[in-house]
Amino acid sequence: MDSTYEHTFIPLTTVSSGEGKEVNIDIYCYCIQFVNICLIGNPTSKTKTWFLVDAGMPHSADNIIRLAEDHFGAQTKPEGIILTHGHFDHVGAIEELLEHWQVPVYAHELEIPYLTGKANYPEGDATVNGGLISELSPLFPNHGINIANHVKMLPADGSVPGLPEWKWLHTPGHTPGHISLFREKDRSLIVGDAFVTVKQESLYRVILQTQEISGPPKYSTTEWEAAAESVKKLNDLRPSLAVTGHGTPMRGEELTSQLAYLVDNFEKVAQPEEGRFVH
């Protein structure tokens, strides 16, 4: 492992709403209510260039702007925003952020209809087993947004504009155009919701942030065969660090063993027994 990154690693503890964790010198994970955003960029560098991954919950724009300025300095703005997907809890503040920053947004081709006002996601599925959040999921916003003037398609070669060390991977299942980000140099993985590290369906476990690798949130995942293949793809990368869209970051042997178990037992552990999208 590159020694530049090795000495910056710190133990990963629970990250609650309104708390952040520097999981690497240039990866900062911040929790907004029950979803994580990431800042990619080294705040000690001269340039202080950075990117935002996902845009959190609705009405969190001021919080995100304040976080960015605390981290990178006053009047800062990202080079761009990268979306793992377009569900409401990952794009909630993006329109307000774009009014403030005026930067490009990068997403997968198959996710762009949901980001340009042309498509809506299915309603949350309350029939999946799991807990109170599943039962409440039909009440969650499922409409697309329209940021057509800002959104750009990620390059087909897997590169990420402005982040030459990172690659994006198509990890569908949770949504058609879901992506994850991977850096080979230190095997860092920003997962999105392809898998998560908390049982997102259970309000009790979400409140406690009980850490355990789980599949994508059951109530909003529509293609389970694709979701299983995406988890296998990510496991094959042998990540040393995983920052997920929900739950606390995980690394090392715990990540390796739990992710392998999820792959081997995906239908039993991750896929609901019944539901609108279970075939």
UniProtKB/TrEMBL annotation:
<protein>
    <submittedName>
        <fullName>Glyoxylase-like metal-dependent hydrolase (Beta-lactamase superfamily II)</fullName>
    </submittedName>
</protein>
<comment type="function">
    <text>Counteracts the endogenous Pycsar antiviral defense system. Phosphodiesterase that enables metal-dependent hydrolysis of host cyclic nucleotide Pycsar defense signals such as cCMP and cUMP.</text>
</comment>
<dbReference type="InterPro" id="IPR001279">
    <property type="entry name" value="Metallo-B-lactamas"/>
</dbReference>
<feature type="domain" description="Metallo-beta-lactamase">
    <location>
        <begin position="34"/>
        <end position="246"/>
    </location>
</feature>
<dbReference type="InterPro" id="IPR036866">
    <property type="entry name" value="RibonucZ/Hydroxyglut_hydro"/>
</dbReference>
<dbReference type="InterPro" id="IPR050855">
    <property type="entry name" value="NDM-1-like"/>
</dbReference>
<dbReference type="Pfam" id="PF00753">
    <property type="entry name" value="Lactamase_B"/>
</dbReference>
